Amino acid sequence: MNNMNKIHRNILACCALMEALSFTACKKDVTPYSPGEGKTASLAFYGASQTFTAYGNKGGVGIFIDTAPFGDATIGDFLPDVPYFSFTKEQNVAYPFVINQPDAVLYEGFKSGDHKVSFAYLQGAMVQTLKDTSFELAPDSRNILYLTDAPAAEGADAVYQTVLVPEPAAGGANMDKVNVKLVHLSADAGTVRASMVRADNQSELFAGLPQQLAFGSYSDYIPLDTAGTIRDGQLVLHIYKQGSATPILVGIPAQLGHGFEVLLTGMAEPHSRRLATGTDTDGNPQYQQVTLPVGLNTVVRQMY
After folding, report:
1. How many other CB atoms are found less than 10 A from the CB of residue 154?
2. Which string of DSSP letters, residue by residue, matches 266-279?
3. What would the pLDDT profile of 251-294 be if each residue is shown by its tens digit?
4. CB of 292 within 8 A of CB of 270?
5. What burial letters (b/e) apply to 254-264, b meaning 16+ CB within 10 Å?
6. How many helices (DSSP H) and strands (DSSP E) are in the chain?
């Protein structure tokens, strides 16, 4: 049935295209209109939710752009219906992605202007919407939409938050510095601060790094000086969660003129959440109570 639905949709799309081409050929005085003044924007997706690990290797999250989630959507095959994050052996939490290069950052082109996105857990016949969001893409912009956990009461259904982060063109980079941006995606780490460690490990530098970065926010790219700060080919940052004097250590490759993003992800404390993980024979959701362990961590990705 799924294959028949796909074939049916493809036939309809081809018929619509042929009709549009025929109409254009007959009406030579028609001025074509494109939303967003004919310009496009680039968009990538990243899944930073710690609940993803609780699903094991079953299913994944479909990303439905400007359409409602539909039940026969396929993900993970050669021609998926929608963008997706995979929980199977691929374990891809970025889209688009390159196989065997999980840290590569790629973008897809979309019309600029207003868009709506629904993230939905897909497993077998189950479609469970996790988060709906809407936003505007500026013409000729590059953007990353992050999906992460949101604060919730203990034992409550898992809830999610999206963070849209514009990505400036590499041409604006400081070519004699290492450029670093922080994105705060940890729901319970509080307001965080960051510093850079000198090469002798004797003191810290603030170096323009954020001192009060709230959950769901991000910094600009910060140009970091490498003089007296390179250790084993890296710059070492300290990130402190709110109220803690114990840092999370982050290594940034000391590559001048390049830009790196540091994602703060995961839970700072264990939490209990309820997840919809399947359906019964009548199609009703089946829930499972899970414990999310401490998973506060960082992910470093080279952006240019």
Report:
1. 8
2. S-SS-EEEEEEEEE
3. 999 999 999 999 999 999 999 999 988 878 887 888 999 999 99
4. yes
5. beeebbbbbbb
6. 1, 20
Place of tokens 């600009």: 220
Q: pTM here?
A: 0.85
Which ranges in 27-80 belong to alpha helices (H)?
none
Rg (CA), the chain: 22
Tokens coding 140: 């000729």
CB atoms within 10 A of CB 283: 9
| Phi-psi sector, 205: left (phi>0), alpha (psi -120 to 50), beta | beta
Q: What is the dihedral of CA 232, 235, 236, 237, to 10 degrees?
A: -170
d(CA 218, CA 185): 9
Q: What is the distance between the alpha carbons of residues 256 and 258, in angstroms, rounded to a whole number?
A: 6
Helix (H), strand (E) at residue 2: helix 2-26
At 229 the pLDDT is: 95
Q: For residue 275, count other CB atoms closer than 10 A to its CB.
A: 20
Domain boundaries, the chain: 37-302
| Length of the chain (residues) | 304
The phi and psi torsions of 237 (rounded to 5 degrees) equal -105, 150
> Is the model's pLDDT at 171 over the cut of 70?
no
**What stretch of H or E contains 7?**
helix 2-26
Q: Which residues contact 26 (CB under 8 A, 6 or more apart)?
A: none
- Inform me whether the pLDDT recorded for 31 exceeds 50: no
- Helix H or strand E encompassing 10: helix 2-26
DSSP state of 52: G
pLDDT for 34 beyond 60: no
**CA separation, residue 231 to residues 178, 209, 254 (Å):** 14, 19, 9
